[in-house]
Amino acid sequence: MPKIVTADGGIREDHWVVVPHPAEGESLALPTQPALIPVRLWLAGREHYAGREDIGVWFDSHEEPEMLADRVNELPLIAVNFPKFSDGRGYSIARLLRERFGYRNELRAIGDVLLDQLQFMKRCGFDTYALRPDKDFSKAARCLNFFSLAYQAATDTDLPLFRRRLA
Amino acid sequence: MYVYDEHDRKLALERVEQFRDQTQRALAGELSEEEFLPLRLQNGLYVQRLAPMLRICVPYGMLRSDQLRRLARITRDYDKGYAHFTTRTNVQLNWPRIEDVPDILAELAEVEMHANQTSGNCIRNTTTDPFSGVQADEVADPRPYCEIIRQWSTFHPEFAFLPRKFKIAMNASERTDRAAIQVHDIGLQLVRNDQGELGFRVHVGGGLGRTPMIGPVIREFLPEADLLTYLEAILRVYNRYGRRDNKFKARIKILVKALTPEGFAEKVETEWQHIKDSPTRLTPEAIEHYRSYFTEPAYETLPDASELLAQQRFENREFDQWVAHNVDAHKRPGYAIVTLTLKKTGIPPGDVSDAQLEHIADLADEFSFGEVRSTHEQNLVLADVRQDRLLELWQRLRPLGFATPNLNTLTDVICCPGGDYCALANAKSIPVAEAIQRRFDDLDYLYDLGKIDLNISGCMNACGHHHVGNIGILGVDKKGEEFYQISLGGNSHHNASIGKILGPSFAQEDIPEVIAKIIDVYVEQRTEEETFLDTYQRIGIDPFKERVYA
């Protein structure tokens, strides 16, 4: 069973399957497990998928969270793909989903998810991380907790340090 | 100067431990080279041609004497006993061992220094005018805002993996721009509006490199309280829409050009409307808090020492030249700003030895309230020197080699480390600088030539800012051989401009003669009042071209 890392550094077994974009001319084949489908396909078949607890979506890094906008909380799980760990667009997508569109359910980082990026992901509102399988899961907790404070506000901290300092 | 509180100290120490852990995992093979790369770069660690290079941050160019002494000790204990001041006012060590870097960072943290974000595709050190706080004509001291930006950008979770590096510069003088803000990703000019309120004129998308551009203004007046939310809006638009498919088209200037400045400004404005009233908006109390660190030192009430100085200058011609070129007016009567030139012929521009660093620290304590500033021209500044002690300071500086009175002249060369050190370089730059300094060794002639910026880069990355040199020299590779392309008419000050390429490139040994021909054209054609740049702008590039390629 695949494992994912949680925001507190814990490790948990997980059943969600990421369903890729179907090839040209083919239709989406849903697995029997809970499925994360491409966000565009969910929007296209929304009347069919809405309300299902076993269907979530995933964004690729070039896709815009604005396309879901107010519908975010119709989803039990949203994932954001990091095609390369050095592609930082997913951090902005996450913050927008959380802070602009008020997404409250689980937000997961998928793709090229490495240990040293977990701290940034957590601060931007991700709460589960599909750590790349070759990485040492036992080090996730340490990598999430190097810092006990931060200068700037983000999804995890409403107040920047300059306000907390003077409080 | 900013002093760490317990929060800053804690973050600095936590960062050292994080990097120690990352280094250990890299050395143990748990991180691939590609995975470690951005982690070490965001800690200033490059792997260079001959050895690793560690770039240490000097936030907006401010250094205390205890920090200089620690740098000296670090160069002795971990390196070859010298350091290099860069064009982004930082300090580089050229020979540290990778496994020592965490210990070096720990030593730096003890004196409130770090190497955070001195490289990598993230927000870099904010630079500003080295005369901040001591010049009469500044709108306000820019350093509190630079510190505010430093803290906001440090480990910013959303902007650690931008399409490309990101550099912010701030200028506060109304008369001049010593921070070259128009060739930065973001350039901020402190201004007051009609109501007398402080704010910024915002330039975005300037830059050097392969596609040099002057940054257009996207907002004429941004109230000071909105500084961080607006920066966050710009960075978010860039992070989302900047190109990631081609490293050479990934800087924000390409995005600004593609969207047009108006189109880019509109996107930023739309984003900003969502976040402008968030808690990241600065409060008057917060701005005051940071301002309180940059108060004036304990100046004495002094008259200007005009008569004494006139007498001393009359009696000593060399001192007179030094005062004329390396000393600037201070806002307080009786004080002066002194620039120490790190451009002595035969020493790579910006290089200082451990002993010299310690001497400078002593001089800072004795003459300038224990503070030093580094400049983007790779010089150092003692900002608060009593006029009646200038002679004494000059006598102390001379044997150290820091009194070369060539500030702003042709031989005050800006120069990157080039092919002698840098893995990216196409060609060497230090020997070119030295050859020019040797060719033009007559100070009287240099003074007669007046202000000329000559900038040298060893490759397109333009660390030596060749595009904005009045004379720019760029190292290029032609079938494995090193050649040099010359450009004229660049300018990094107000009304900044990008230099025009003169024509086909030259071999290294021809450069001093080519420069001499260019200078001859200027001398023949200038009117009495004209600087090199003025003459160039009046007569254009053709007369220079004709002479050089005759």
Automatic annotation (TrEMBL), chain A:
It comes from the Bacteria. Pfam families: DUF934 (PF06073). This is Oxidoreductase.
Automatic annotation (TrEMBL), chain B:
Residues 119-275, 409-548 form the Nitrite/sulphite reductase 4Fe-4S domain. Residues 53-111, 346-398 form the Nitrite/Sulfite reductase ferredoxin-like domain. InterPro entries: NIR_SIR_4Fe-4S, NiRdtase/SiRdtase_haem-b_fer, Nit/Sulf_reduc_fer-like_dom_sf, NO2/SO3_Rdtase_4Fe4S_dom, NO2/SO3_Rdtase_4Fe4S_sf. One of its GO terms (molecular function) is heme binding. Transmembrane segments: none annotated. Pfam families: NIR_SIR, NIR_SIR_ferr. The keyword Cell inner membrane does not apply. Keywords: 4Fe-4S, Heme, Iron, Iron-sulfur, Metal-binding, Oxidoreductase. This is Sulfite reductase. It comes from Marinobacter lutaoensis.
